[in-house]
Task: structure prediction
Amino acid sequence: MVRGVQMDGDTIDGRLVDAEAGLIDRRIFSDQDIFEQEAKQVFGKSWLFVGHESQIPNNGDYFTSQAGRDAVVVTRDSDGEVRVMLNMCTHRGMPVCRYDKGNAKRFTCPYHGWTFSNNGDLSGLPLSTDGYGGQLDRKKWGLIQARVTLYHGSIWATFDAAVPPFEETLGDMAVMLRDFMQGPDGEDDGLEVIDGILKFEIHSNWKFGAENNAGDLYHDVSHNSVQRVGLALSGLRGRHVWNADKHSFKILNVAYPAGGHAARVNLYDDEQREYHPQWAVVPEVDEYFRAAHYARQDRLGEKARLLNRGGIVFPNIAYNSAGRWQITMWVPRAPNRTEVWKWYFVPKKAPQKVKDTLRHYLLRYGGPSGMVEQDDIENWASAQVGAECAAANRLPMNYTLHMGQAQWAWPVPWFGEGAYVDEGVSEHAQRVFYARWAEMMGHPAIEQGQEAGR
Amino acid sequence: MIATGDRSHQTTLPAPSLKERVEDFLALEGELLDERRFDEWLELFADDARYWMPLARNIEHDNLAAEYTREQQDAAWFDEDKKTLLQRVMQLKGGDHWAEEPFSRTTHITANIRIESASETELTVKSRFIVYVNRREGEVRLFVGKRIDVLRPDGEGFLIAKRSIFLDQSKLLFKNLTTFF
Result:
């Protein structure tokens, strides 16, 4: 049990996470017992992203995905309802679907032929009469169904009956997640998935990727090489198109301690801003973004001050926005092994030329072939080496950067009362992430501390 | 040994066949990558070249057209032109691309080379590859798959007009694709 795996040194008290001191026991990245408890306490009691509705436009469409360590099949059933079900035959536990995507009315288990409709009902049972005497309760033995929430196109699921509704666990992070799912013109539900989910495996604990996306603005040195070469299509060096926007802004780490979520944002000083070409290399694309920029200002008003760069929906879903629309999911396989899934998005109403240009930019940005994320992946796998270092196991990981300066519901009220915000380069969002993690693991961080929840 | 250079000793040998010239070209190309001569490797590509590695998926037997993501439409591991290949080379060479600093050791093996069609201006060549990567101490990546190259005759040699790379993995089993194929 986790309570038995405590720091026995004098560098930090017995807790695994001391968010107030900014110190974390490195064994949370390497210990098998903690890993097993995490599956139950963190992943088992959280809403988890499994995919996007644009992947299953037609009745009968399906794809396979992961809810934490558990494989799921996501269908749009014959009545059009989105279902998330364990990809597991209720008889002997085989996956009933062995394809990444497709269209099917039913799934037949290859082992004994139990057959399930695309709504999960047990519709076919060999030897139903001769073997089961017509007595097997088919309603009881359908595929195990998750609770499902659709949120502006994204699909979320949990198998726990007691977890509060999705919107409740999301809290004021809804401001950020909703913004991410909007098109560049600020219209809700504005994105569609580019067909093809990237899946790759890294030898790293899943939390290294999660904490990095929660708000690590400290690691720019890692990306020197892509900054030097240039990747953005603004015509400027660097990887981010928004660098071309010369208006003044604050860099903010907007954390939501109640749920453990966080976003990295720029908040511009002015609501009405002239468009500065961010896609100047491709004039046709730049025209689209110019029009979208002004449409968004008209639509969102004051909230158009927000440039939502990216963030994390606790525990394992990261999004990147602002021209780099993608969702990254960490599937924990072992303390030191993580499967990473990546969905790329484009604005669904954009002209094909814009979609094509964005697709090329995205493919060069993220994942194992991305000129940016290659170096992130290298970091996460290399940090794992230190997490497993026996001689250093009494040395906590240091998360003390820019401590004690965060403010609630600041600097704009529409971030929400649950927003706990720190400006600049800070490990604030990571402290919040780990405080929530510790809370779910039954190790509340220091109750009175300003870094803990309210 | 690099296949360019003094060929005077070959004057008594019969002229190489088209297939031998293609094999020699593909071997040279692998050598340039393995010797980290990325600029020279890049010179083997036509200015309008395309370099594409789709994602593979697990798909029903009667839907094989969907096994690989579609070119110029879907996600891919690589979807490059010569300009973006140059960017990748520039990133590799700077000493600050930590995913390839220090450089991995690589060996490119190209086999089962077959000229599928040939005209005055263009050849379509199918092959299989094994790319072995050893990074730092213990990290090993093994990539096996199929290639279809469109080559253009260029003087004594060829230029690669298009390379399609079909990796035999749906989930990438290794953390990074910092190697050219």
User: Anything to note?
Assistant: Chain B touches chain A through 40 residues (CB under 8 Å). The two ends of chain B are 20 Å apart (CA to CA). The longest strand of chain B covers residues 139-154. The helical segments of chain B are 18-34, 38-42, 82-93.
